[in-house]
Amino acid sequence: MFDNLSEKLDKALHVLKGHGQITEINVAETLKEVRRALLDADVNFKIAKEFTNKVKEKAMGQDVLTSLQPGQLMVKLVKDELTELMGGDAEGINLSGAPSIILMSGLQGSGKTTFSGKLANYLKTKKTKKPLLVACDVYRPAAIDQLHVVGEQIGVEVFSDRGNNDPVAISKAGIAHAKANGFNVVIIDTAGRLAVDEQMMKEIANIHKAIQPQETLFVVDSMTGQDAVNTAKSFNDILNFDGVILTKLDGDTRGGAAISIKSVVNKPIKFIGTGEKMDAIDVFYPSRMAERILGMGDVVSLVERAQEQFDEEEARKIQKKIAKNKFGFDDFLSQIQQIKKMGSLKDLMGMIPGAGKALKGLDIDDDAFKHIEAIIHSMTPDERSTPAKLNASRKKRIAKGSGTSIQEINQLLKQFDQMSKMMKMMQGGGGKKMMQMMGAMKGMK
């Protein structure tokens, strides 16, 4: 997410590093590079210019605190201005109404149907709502099938009427069905086109007028850059929508849409899509996104995701096993499952401060744990609970069964042993010992 922009901003802000004070010359030099980085990320020229002017104004009007270097101050000013540009505060979704009606709009291929499913899943699992998905794309038969597949995947009912070609009538019938069957949220998936056209705009405007939704959301593919911003403006002129959804933020995106869309349409980004899975949806927090763009990570989101997957009962069991020296590979496997539930590994690594830069160019596969799982599944229950029993002949059998090498098995055993020791120290409060051990491990790979 935003790899190129992050790298270029980092280089731009490096200009001030080592300077004892902020001057008009070094600020101008830094901000020229910042503006160039924003333009390369497909941010509108006018917005990029206004952005750097505001940062310059604030930088020149401030004395650098003794505890701050000029470079640190500039990073803070750029972060604050980026946060403001992207909307300042996170905006929630309006769930008033009985039922709450959410109208989804956007171009074909923006990920609208998939995101309708993600939103339904989010409202069902995180907000304990009972959502109904309504298929109103009467032009693309595959869209109705796609929504039914998505609904089945997440356990949410889909209302459709294949013989009807009137999206207004279908949306009204869907809302009536929701009222009669106890659904408290209705998500209406409408037709998209390959480009903005008069017929499409007229149709979505008619649906909007007929159902009077509490929330109208515009779904946009973040990889389309400035085109996404221009499309959002066209839709907003007709619909006056309530918020933007940015999809495909996990792709090779330059980030221009995320940064400038709010200032063009004056509507908040409410959610972002960060992957293909149905739980790859995040509330959009401008300050957290600004921190990620500047390579500061996003520890708050990382902790929130960890808390969502944290099983207190499981943690207690593992704690007892560690105390009795009985932490085995089955426990290790359950820890891996919890990490996998938190989302894509690349996304998680991007939330760790400094990790983005360190891992640049590395392709972190979501199947990174696959060979570890294969090795553990090739062990007998006895071997999993007592790893010390793994002698040469057993390792040979496991390597053959898991399609891995003895070297990989030895590496896993070494990692497992280090992890077990560390967990034991953490539990015993041996902070000093742990620090010494971490120092000793620094050079290990």
Task: Describe the protein's architecture and organization.
The protein is α/β, with parallel strands linked by helices. The protein folds into three domains: 3-85, Up-down Bundle (Four Helix Bundle (Hemerythrin (Met), subunit A)), CATH 1.20.120.140; 100-296, P-loop containing nucleotide triphosphate hydrolases (Rossmann fold); 302-441, 434 Repressor (Amino-terminal Domain), CATH 1.10.260. Helix content is 57%, strand content 9%. The protein contains 21 helices and eight strands. It has helices at residues 3-14, 24-40, 45-60, 70-85, 112-125, 141-154, 167-180, 198-211, 226-239, 256-265, 286-293, 299-309, 312-323, 329-341, 345-350, 355-358, 370-377, 381-385, 392-402, 406-427, 431-441; strands at residues 100-106, 131-136, 158-159, 185-190, 215-221, 243-247, 269-273, 281-283. An eight-stranded mixed beta sheet has the order 3-2-4-1-5-6-7-8, sandwiched between helices. This is Signal recognition particle protein. It catalyses: GTP + H2O = GDP + phosphate + H(+). Part of the signal recognition particle protein translocation system, which is composed of SRP and FtsY.
Layout of strands and helices, then pairs:
Blueprint: H1 3-14, H2 24-40, H3 45-60, H4 70-85, E1 100-106, H5 112-125, E2 131-136, H6 141-154, E3 158-159, H7 167-180, E4 185-190, H8 198-211, E5 215-221, H9 226-239, E6 243-247, H10 256-265, E7 269-273, E8 281-283, H11 286-293, H12 299-309, H13 312-323, H14 329-341, H15 345-350, H16 355-358, H17 370-377, H18 381-385, H19 392-402, H20 406-427, H21 431-441
Parallel strand pairs: 1-4, 1-5, 2-3, 2-4, 5-6, 6-7
Antiparallel strand pairs: 7-8
Helix pairs in contact: 1-2, 2-3, 3-4, 4-11, 5-6, 7-8, 9-10, 17-19, 19-20
